[in-house]
Amino acid sequence: MRLVRGPAHAIAGPNPWSPEALVQCTGRSMTPRRRALVRNAALTLVLVLLATGCNALADPRAPQSTVFPKSDWAALIYDLYNKVFIMAVLVFVGVEGALLLFIIRYRRTDENRLPSQTHGNTRLEILWTILPALVLFVIAIPSIQVIFASEEVPPNVSAMYVRVIGHQWWWEFQYPELGISTANELHVPAGQTVRFDLQSADVIHSFWFPFMGGKVDVVPMRVNHMWYTPDASAASASPYLSQCVEFCGTEHAMMRNRLFVDTPEQFNAWAALQRQDAQVPQGDDVQRGAGLLLGGQCRNCHTIKGTTAIGVIGPNLTHVGSRSTIVSGTLDTNVDNLAKWIHDPQSVKPGAKMPTLGFSEADARSMAVYLMTLK
Amino acid sequence: MRSVAAAPPITPAAPPAHTEEHRTSTGLNNRKVLMWTFLGSDCMFFGALIASYIVYRGKWQQTPTPNELFDIPYTSVSAFALLMSSLAMVLALAAIQRGDLKRLKIWLLTTAGLGLIFIGGQIYEFTGFGAEGMNLSTGTGGTTFFVLTGFHGTHVSLGIIWLLSLYTLARRGALHQGRSLDVEIAGLYWHFVDIVWIIIFTVVYLLPV
Amino acid sequence: MSVVHAADHAAEHHPGARDYVIIAAILTAITAVEVAVYYILQGPTRALLSPVLIVLSTLKFTLVVMYYMHLKFDSRLFTTIFVFGLCVAIFMILAFVAIFHGFLVIPGGA
Amino acid sequence: MATIAVPSPIAERRVLRPIAPTGVWSWITTIDHKRIGVLYGTTAFIFFLIGGLEALLMRTQLIRPNNTLLGPDQFNGLFTMHGTTMIFLVVMPLSAAFFNYVVPLQIGARDVAFPRLNAFSYWTFLSGAILLNLGFVAQTVPDNGWFSYANITERAFSPSAGQDFWVVGLQVLGVASLAAALNFLVTIVQLRAPGMSLMRMPLFTWTTFITSILIVLAFPVIAIALFELMFDRLFGTNFFNTIGGGDPILWQHLFWTFGHPEVYILILPAMGIVSEILPVFSRKPLFGYPFMVYAVAGIAFLSFTVWAHHMFTTGLGAIATSFFAASTMLIAVPTGVKIFNWISTIHGGSLKLTTPALMSIGFVSMFTIGGLSGVMHASPPIDTQHQDTYFVVAHFHYVLFGGAIFGLFGGIYYWWPKITGRLLDDGIGKLQFWLMMIGFNLTFGPMHFLGIDGMPRRIYTYPANMGWDMWNLVASIGAYTLGLAILVMIFNIAKTFINGERAGADPWDGMTLEWTIPSPPPAYNFAVIPEVHSRDPFWLQKHPELASHELTESTGEITIGAQHVGDLGIPAVHAGQDGGHEAHGDVHVHMPDPSYWPPIAGLGFFIAGLGVLIASATTYAALGLTGIGLLTVLVAIYGWSLEPVNG
Ligand code: HEA
Ligand code: HEA
Ligand code: CUA
Ligand SMILES: [Cu+2]
């Protein structure tokens, strides 16, 4: 198991709480062979159980599954999960087995029999006070190691920095170092450590990509952090889906987002594109749409770089046409959907913070056509 | 259901015959156990409020902050009044336990009076703060200060009502030596309110931010 | 718990009016000291103010509880009940302080 | 009241308190702990049906992807009301029903320490319950979840009155719970029959005791939190209002400082019930009684140190996270002791699988599953994957339904004959049990997989391509099966009223004092207060041969007034000491009279709550109504303390 995330020696100094120190002190108590033996025995037992059990039922095609780690952090958690799960299964089998056995064994057969009146057995009871405590100790140590290992990016790792801002009910992603601002679709290069600053514009949300690791809440008045390194191989299964996981109001269910793990080349190309100003409208149709859009209220809420639209209430639309989905991952990006949304957002996503502005379907369609050109 | 139509008459004093509680497992009086248990619980009420206050203490983003407005000598005097009301309260209890009903009445009134001085002082203080720009919705400082001290003030006010009720009973001759417990229990409540102020005075007013 | 006859002992050493007045005098004195140190401890000695105040107010608190509320003379059960509530409350307050005022953050960490 | 006629002393004195012995008014003004217990139980069961119906609606919405049966706001209102109802209006009052009915009987008391305070608790509880549900009438239902995290609960984000119903309803419910808990603490400390030392108390009495301690210490915290939220919404204070500098995380700490002890408040009574049932049906005493007591106390104590395990994803920092992880895991130790001791109680016994026994076994087996998933959450890194997914939903239904509801239903089957004098049908009961068991696992088992597959909780719909379709369908089918099980239970109850088999005083061969008196018990419970010489006193009374050996610290037997156990053929040994009110032979027991004041005080709180609700929707002027309500409470308290005390 990898305990230290990122490159080795990430955490310097003789800190007794450092993960290395903790590994050492637990590692010493069992010889590697003994440990392997125990682990194998447990694993065999558990795997048999699990063939029909829990993990096997976890659907590998489920795009938000928590048990197919694709980053260092997710892998750490998954390892831990397996350990704890094995313990839980062992306890489960023991307890339920004994219960079942005794129920069958000690069924009342003779209404007149008075069984022997045992009142307890102090030694036994002390035993099953201590035994679970030991099991828990075995769980607690690696848990705490992982907590500390995932607390902060090791100082010698250079991380890309992304600012995540939760809004009711969409996600804003800023790359301050790259001068990019986008919405709902996050791009990161494979193998590159990313550090997120999590902020909220209104209420509490929670930011999560199960394949990349756990979630961290996005709390107003605070800046929370999260970091991980997507596996070098993660690009192949991209995009990864997720959604907001802290109840945040009416459309909490529709606050979805996507993660694109790109190869470094793809990422650079994407970033270069995103940095540019918006495409200048060309052609009558498109110009008509642009005129409507920039003449209307849209610009109070949306930014389209290089135009008069500089609002910051809604998603940045500079490159909206380059996203695969719109409206927090609820609709595919195409002219029809854009037109439908602009015409009447409230029927698409009731409660959304974009009002229905009363544009006719035709006008909405023109704007949609313009927006589609904003690659 | 005849008794329903005729509303139950409220009768003044209860006949003393049955006020002595039955045998209890501990030999202690039920109502006294109840009061102490309630006070244990009340610790948590104030604990939660004080915790809320401390969480924001020193992180206020408002001006003026509560501590800029405090007039320590002034509040010391009203804190002192409340402290002395506790003395009056024990003296009232001692009086009824001796069967000295006259002193009982005097000390009960004194206690309530000192409580009223405290409340009056608090109202005056609050008004002053309001005039200087700190009210219930001024940042987290105003919010936590007023709600904490106001909650305490409500406790004091309820205590005053209780004491005055006892005083009325005493005047009607319904309190006598055998019912000293009624005064003792009110006293427990009253002293508790006093010790809470000891804490609030220190934590809110005196401790440096 | 052997609270059963604890109440019997209660009545014996009951403090009288005189004792109450003495306690009141002590309480007054402590309050005076509290206010005094508030003004006296300035500059570098200001750091002493918090511990001094905490000790003094704890003293006041204890005096009132022990004598005016009779816990010193009353059944142990009452002390148990009250102190238990008090301890949980104090634990909660301390935990909140630790969490919100950054005492649990690793120095140099996030 | 079959066996002994109570000569009414009423005629002899001025009629100052209500006297009707039967009819609606007798129930409204009752201060008899048994009747109040029945009131609690009935109300809780009705709310169980309502909360269950809300669940069924949710399950129907989630039965397939992209369902449009319910809109987002409707769904959000449903899970909020479902969670709040099940916790505050079902499990707590159902537990309170048993506290009320059973505890005085188990400790050999005539009533609780403060009968009118007890009635007050019930009526205030009812007021709170109605206030909470009034949102359905006003058509703005609370919709921010059962823990209503700030700051979405602020006026700026939840302008409608829905949130106010939640705040006010819970506030009033809190008053009721506190009053009840204080009452039970005093009752158990003070009113035990002679000889009933703490370590001879039945375990259910113990869990009531500890639960009450938890309530007394935990409810003030939520009361203050609600108070602060109410002030934020009503008067623009800034406790949780970020615009004024407030920190929404404070709410989470306050809520869970209450909330975690609360979950043990929900489970401990059920654990107590199981600890009563398993020994009786195994015909041997509870295994390791002292350990069981210490375990309950240990759980209670630890429960105040673990709250932030609900906040592992909020950015607590590594040190705090580790601390709360460790303390949380520690709780599994005393809980494990209980599980092992229950199993050992069955070991070597003679187990009769009646419905109460089955329900208890259901408890032990299902609660273990919920506990184990709890331990998985206790590992913070794992929790960051599971938090706010259906895995957590699975966890808490396994402990709440698999634990609390199974246990409490076991209690219903177990004490029903004592309460009504008639047995619930055991065959139908078994049918219900198996339907419940199957339905329960079908409903909540798959939620583990949904959680692992990343399905968040509190979403009103989900797309089709997420791999969640099948398990949601299964869960919904399971929920309908549960509904069926509950219908079976209702049928059983109805049938029992019509032609239920009569139960004697001691239908189960019980061990504790409540089985020594007739079913249903007379108003005064015990004509002669029994004197107790051991744990499981009735058991040893029936089996005197057991008393001599094996028992270490408990010896001897229980003493019961002969006239009461006549139908059991148990001789009385000697009469217990008591206040001296009883004339032996001919029973003259003065019981306190009913009173109007408790329901009036409850009504006062209702009016006060209504005032706050109207004020927050319209103008501050409505706070006048709150004033009137509180004044009513005050008047009621005066009326009540000046009322002639009879008996
Ligand atoms: C009856 C109520 C009840 C009970 C008893 C418990 C019991 C426990 N709970 Fe649970 N919990 C809830 C009700 C309850 N919970 C609710 C309602 C929520 C969700 C709130 C919300 O978000 O809406 C919740 C959420 C919750 C969380 C937060 C999850 C999240 O939101 O991310 C956590 C995290 O630690 C947790 C942990 C535990 C633990 C460790 C126990 C332990 O007490 C369990 C101990 C029991 C056992 C472990 C089984 C028996 C033991 C043995 C057989 C011994 C051997 C075992 C071992 C060695 C492991 N619970
Ligand atoms: C004791 C507590 C308890 C109990 C018993 C239950 C019981 C059930 N719960 Fe509960 N549940 C909670 C406590 C409880 N729940 C809590 C605290 C939450 C969190 C809320 C939140 O997120 O804020 C929750 C959330 C919750 C969710 C998640 C919602 C979401 O996050 O989106 C779901 C989803 O399936 C669910 C389902 C069920 C079901 C199917 C039952 C079934 O077991 C119900 C069985 C009962 C019945 C089926 C009733 C039978 C009724 C009839 C047969 C009708 C007869 C009617 C009349 C005569 C009028 N519950
Ligand atoms: Cu944002 Cu839920
Ligand atoms: Cu918890």
- Overall 3D shape of chain D: globular
Mean pLDDT of chain A: 84
Sheet with most strands of chain A:
5 strands, mixed
Please give the share of residues in helix of chain D.
55-70%
Q: Considering residues with a beta carbon less than 8 A from a beta carbon on another chain, report the largest interface and each chain's count.
A: A-D, 91 and 97 residues
Strand arrangement within the widest β-sheet of chain A reads 3-2-1-5-8
Major β-sheet of chain D, in short? 2 strands, antiparallel
Total number of β-strand segments of chain D? Answer: 2
Q: Which secondary-structure class do the elements of chain A indicate?
A: alpha+beta
Distance separating the two termini of chain D: 19 Å
Order of helices and strands of chain D: HHHHHHHHHHHHEHHEHHHH
Distance from first to last alpha carbon of chain A: 43 Å
Summarize the structure.
The complex is a heterotetramer of chains A (375), B (209), C (110) and D (647). Chain A has 375 residues and is an alpha+beta fold. In chain A, 40% of the residues lie in helices and 15% in strands.
Structural write-up:
By secondary structure, chain A is of the alpha+beta class. Chain A has 11 helices and 12 strands. In chain A, the strands form 4 sheets. Chain A has a 5-stranded mixed beta sheet with strand order 3-2-1-5-8. A 3-stranded mixed beta sheet of chain A has the order 4-10-9. Chain B contains 7 helices and no strands. The longest helix of chain B has 33 residues. With 110 residues, chain C is mainly α. Chain C contains 4 helices and no strands. The N and C termini of chain C lie far apart (49 Å). The N terminus of chain C is likely disordered. By secondary structure, chain D is mainly α. Chain D contains 18 helices and 2 strands. In chain D, helix 4 runs parallel beside helix 17 and helix 7 crosses helix 12. The interface between A and D is large, with 91 and 97 residues. The structure holds heme-A (2 copies), dinuclear copper ion and copper (II) ion.
